[in-house]
């Protein structure tokens, strides 16, 4: 499974983000490109511990189910994410995209960090789990807009 801590993988995602435009056509869901960029930024902020969250205690917080969702199963279209990942409102497109890129790079510097914030749906998370989840989440939304 890909990890956002891998430099080559992160560079591929950064290039995909650069191809995204305000005019990118949505293939499913309700997010606009600008709302999606802010949503991805908020997910990285969750991983960095910058957005307070509660520990998930539902079925996805159990290790076998969390593993299936993050590492094995494709994500269905229209799945709702945690409210904590929808805090930031779009402002100026180029600045929001640059912020997302900077957050990804800051996230990558913490690859060796021991303690990681909990996820509101997946519960207790390790760095490797956050790295894989971030890749899967970014891929899901970038495919949503054809990039």
Could you explain how this protein is built, in words?
The chain is mainly alpha-helical and 147 residues long. The chain has a single domain, classed as Up-down Bundle (Four Helix Bundle (Hemerythrin (Met), subunit A)), CATH 1.20.120. The protein has five helices and no strands. The chain is globular, with a radius of gyration of 14 Å. The two termini are 20 Å apart.
Distance between the termini: 20 Å
Order of helices and strands: HHHHH
Q: What number of domains?
A: 1
| Helix residue percentage | 40-55%
Mind summarizing the main beta sheet? none
Structure summary, number of beta strands? 0
Number of helices: 5
The CATH class, by name, is Mainly Alpha
What general form does the structure show?
A: globular
SS strand fraction = under 5%
The second-level CATH architecture is: Up-down Bundle
Structural class: mainly alpha
Mean pLDDT: 95
- Our Rg estimate from Cα atoms comes to 14 Å
Show unreliable segments.
none
């Amino acid at each position: 499974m890909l990890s956002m801590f891998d430099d080559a993988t992160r560079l591929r995602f950064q290039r995909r983000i650069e191809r995204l435009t305000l005019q990118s056509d949505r293939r499913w869901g309700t997010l606009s490109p600008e709302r999606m960029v802010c949503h991805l930024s908020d997910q990285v902020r969750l991983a960095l511990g910058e957005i307070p969250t509660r520990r998930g205690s539902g079925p996805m917080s159990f290790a076998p189910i969390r593993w299936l969702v993050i590492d094995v199963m494709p994500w269905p279209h229209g799945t709702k994410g945690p409210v904590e990942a929808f805090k930031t409102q779009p402002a100026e497109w180029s600045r929001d995209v640059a912020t997302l890129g900077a957050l990804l790079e800051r996230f990558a510097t913490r690859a060796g960090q021991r303690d990681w914030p909990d996820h509101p749906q997946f519960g207790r998370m390790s760095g490797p789990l956050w790295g894989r989840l971030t890749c899967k989440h970014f891929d899901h939304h970038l495919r949503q807009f054809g990039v």
